[in-house]
Amino acid sequence: MSEKTKPTLAIIGFGDFSQLMVRHLSPYFKVMVSSRRKIKDKKGLDFTEVNVATALKQPIIIPSMPSQFLEEFFIANFDFLNLKALVVDVCSVKTQPAEVLRRVLPESVQVLATHPLFGPTSAKDGLKGQRIMVYPVRLTDEAFTKIKQFLQKTLQLEIIETTPEKHDEMMAYAQGLSHYIGRAMQMMDIPDSKLSTKAYQDLIDMKRVQGNDSDALFDSILFENPYALEVNKKFKQTLKALDEDLGIK
């Protein structure tokens, strides 16, 4: 695909996941990136740095930011928005972003909810076989079909179709619990060891990956998912019950 025939896509933000998106999408799109901070190192990636007004005029917009910032961002920058754009949500939680984008963005803007179930570490060897959750919040059947074909056939991702509510209910365990434990392991600074078992190495990996997530992402996973705090409460109650069974005070 030549540069002249590539569609244009804009990513808002230049964190680690944004950089992963640029790497894998730039062969198929002319990628623009808007960041609050001046990008000093493009890290060998193929994109054009633009201001937020230019980014929001593009036909495809990916706001790569924790969910708690979405509403404020789109309200503050509404006048720049392409009213016929496709907005692709990549937040780690889904119920809140879907509700916000449905309410804040006009009916003419299409909205796709996604959660790429991978990151820079897990996708270091490529995207093939990685999983992505998708849900058409406000999207034509034709557009949804084309997007799924691109994700499956071109990027070779495995698609999971589910509602934002079902996603958050499942991810309260799969993500909310694992990130909480990973942060705890990071705060304890558990040591690596030559004598470590596979199970202990899993904890080291959680410390290294989930434990080092930004505070904004951690807060989003724990507080923006409507099911996460209940799972967190159940986990701590279970630890207390376990200690009581063992006679640990």
Short account of what is shown:
It contains 9 helices and 8 strands. The chain has helices spanning 16-25, 52-55, 70-76, 95-104, 141-154, 164-188, 198-208, 215-224, 228-246; strands at 8-12, 30-34, 48-49, 60-63, 86-89, 110-116, 131-138, 158-161. Helix 1 links the parallel strand 1 and strand 2.
Topology of helices and strands:
Blueprint: E1 8-12, H1 16-25, E2 30-34, E3 48-49, H2 52-55, E4 60-63, H3 70-76, E5 86-89, H4 95-104, E6 110-116, E7 131-138, H5 141-154, E8 158-161, H6 164-188, H7 198-208, H8 215-224, H9 228-246
Parallel strand pairs: 1-2, 1-4, 2-3, 4-5, 5-6, 7-8
Antiparallel strand pairs: 6-7
Helix pairs in contact: 3-4, 6-7, 6-9
Q: Could you characterize the architecture of this molecule?
A:
The chain has 249 residues and is an alpha/beta fold. The chain has 2 domains: 8-162, NAD(P)-binding Rossmann-like Domain (Rossmann fold, 3-Layer(aba) Sandwich), CATH 3.40.50; 166-238, no CATH class. The chain contains 9 helices and 8 strands. It has helices spanning 16-25, 52-55, 70-76, 95-104, 141-154, 164-188, 198-208, 215-224, 228-246, and strands spanning 8-12, 30-34, 48-49, 60-63, 86-89, 110-116, 131-138, 158-161. Strands 3-2-1-4-5-6-7-8 form an 8-stranded mixed sheet. The longest helix has 25 residues, at 164-188. It is globular. The N and C termini lie far apart (65 Å). The mean pLDDT is 94.
